[in-house]
Design a protein that fits this description.
This protein has 7 helices and 4 strands. The protein is of the alpha+beta class.
């Protein structure tokens, strides 16, 4: 059971300061911000502990497993990419039905769509708060089995691996650190 400090610690700086959102919730709702913040603080010695925490959080974000129900639209194998059609001027169209395995990526090219890897880094390519970002996040929630309602605890449980019987504390345990 996580301590309240670990999964309830709110962001204390940046654009989410005072919102009571935890870094885990921010990671699953606005992943672009976490990727940006991690890159910004990575080489700043004054923020070393926060940078280490964000680095572990980014690693957990990148390692989220695919839902067992996600299947390639052509062959039924686990997908690796999602098809997103449209552009910034008219908007984008994305759906969990348009996902493909590595062997069938050529099927979608005739439809003038762009293939993106399935993962939170794809959501970071769309402006947070836009309709397009919302569509991508809704699709990723289905593909990655993320909870519909991102409470502090639900977000923490998605990104914090459970201890294994051989260890009580995983080496990559995410601990909320403050400056």
């Amino acid at each position: 059971m996580p301590s309240q400090e670990t999964w309830r610690r709110a962001a204390t700086f940046g654009k989410y300061r005072g919102t009571k959102k935890t870094w885990y919730q921010i990671a699953l709702s606005d992943p672009g911000y976490v990727y940006w913040m991690e890159a910004k603080l990575r080489n700043d010695p004054e923020w070393a502990s926060m940078a280490r925490f964000l680095d572990r959080l980014v690693s957990a974000m990148d390692a989220l497993p695919l839902s067992s129900s996600a299947r390639c639209a052509v062959c039924g194998q686990p997908p690796t990419v999602m098809s997103i059609a449209g552009n910034a001027r008219v908007g984008y169209s994305v759906s969990p039905q348009y996902v493909y395995c590595a062997e069938h990526t050529d099927c979608i090219l005739a439809h003038n769509a762009t293939l993106y890897p399935i993962g939170l880094r794809t959501a970071a390519e769309f402006r947070h708060g836009s309709t397009d970002h919302g569509q991508v996040m809704r699709t990723l929630k289905v593909l990655l089995d993320l909870p519909e309602r991102l409470t502090a605890r639900a977000a923490w449980e998605c990104l914090e691996p459970a201890p294994t019987p051989s260890t009580t504390t995983p080496s990559h345990k995410l601990v909320a650190l403050s400056r």
